[in-house]
Amino acid sequence: MSLTLAAVQTLNGLQLGVLLFLVAAGLTLVFGVMDFINLAHGVQYMMGAYFAVAGYALTSNFLAALAFAVLGSLALGLLLERLVFRRLYRRSHLDQVLGTFGIIIFLNELARTVWGATPRTLPVPEALSGSILLMDGLLYPVYRLAILAAGLVVAALLYVLVRWSRAGMLVRAGASNPRMLSALGIDVDRLFAGVVGFGAMLAGFAGLMAAPILSVGSSMGDDLLVLAFVVIVIGGIGSIRGAFVGALAVGLVDTLGRSFATDIFKLFLAPAAANEAGPALASMLIYILMAGVLFFAPSGLFGAKTA
User: Fold this and answer.
1) Under the phi-then-psi rule, with left for phi > 0, alpha for psi from -120 to 50, and beta for the rest, what region is 185?
2) I need a labelling partner for 300 at 20 to 30 A (CA). Which of 219, 233, 269, 307 fits?
């Protein structure tokens, strides 16, 4: 286990963490504000990546791909909210799970029909290509650092928006008492639609950022959705700060665990046993982390329905 490898995997874990945050932030807002379980949030991340690929194919410009991803995801989120989600708000959680699972199947098949089953790629923008020397023996891709920086900037802006803006005040009020907010003359349906659209836009932005380093395929959002739910449970449902802390924790634990669990076991076990135990434990580490957090803080690190 070298220092250089540990540094690289730490950066990779932070990068995974900020991508998880972009997805989990919208998911925790929708769940915390509206008490709505949206399993389709993962496919919105996938569709954002596909929108980016389509935008780049038409324009050969990364900024245009960014616009396609963000605006396309926003439009898709608002369309789904109007046609499907709105009919499920007052239904049971089981109905919400079944309804949004149906959307997953539909959009996955739609993506295969439109873009084919072959994975797509999005080129890294020329300005962010290449690597930078961080320390002796450590060259790290500039684009991956850009993902980390973009995620941190979005996290800061989102926290300020939710905590200090009028829109954020309305969102927090809607999470606490939507009936009272409606009695004060606020269009709660429009507010909820805005929350869903904003969450979809964040997921689409995450899909765009991930597209140059991951294969863009119809199932790319499935595994990330599971991780996003782990994040919001650890951080506390409805909490942006909790989503950020939880996402970084999950990203680091998952990445470092998969990289070093076997080496750590070799300090105590025979190599053959370590080779079997290491990967098995590494795949469970984030769930062990979640269980540990819930044991001491059943509502998550930052409590339920707090921003």
Assistant:
1) left
2) 219
